[in-house]
Design brief:
The protein contains one helix and six strands. It is rod-shaped and about 70 Å long. Strand 4 and strand 5 form a beta hairpin. The model has no long low-confidence stretch (mean pLDDT 86). It has 105 residues and is mainly β.
Length: 105
């Protein structure tokens, strides 16, 4: 579940402080009042953490295909799995990576 950051609009003191974090479901309504003191609050836009695959091995484990250009019309599939060809020559359709096996609903 995401962590949302809220800020008090009033100047009165609260146990939670001027700003506080709250774990809420993504489908939950945003708070308009502080759960501790009842004063009006606003939700802030915060930085979120997004993890993306960085290495060819990470990409392969997540089902991605990474092609590295080696020559004019020739690519190396650095994430080849199973029976996939390691070299893809655009002039030879049979060497194209099997993308259907990696795409899931």
């Amino acid at each position: 579940m995401p962590i949302y950051e809220y800020e008090h609009l009033g100047r009165e003191e609260c146990k939670l402080g001027c700003r506080f974090e709250l774990v809420q479901s993504i489908s939950s309504e945003k708070l308009t009042k502080c759960p501790e003191c009842g004063q009006p609050v606003q939700r802030l836009i915060s930085i979120c953490a997004i993890s993306t695959p960085k290495t060819a091995s990470d990409l392969k484990n997540h089902g991605f295909t990474k092609l590295v250009r080696r020559d004019n019309g020739v690519y190396e599939n650095v994430t080849a799995t199973g029976k996939e060809s390691r070299i893809w020559d655009v002039r030879k359709p049979e060497t194209m990576p099997d993308l259907k096996s990696k795409i899931r609903d």
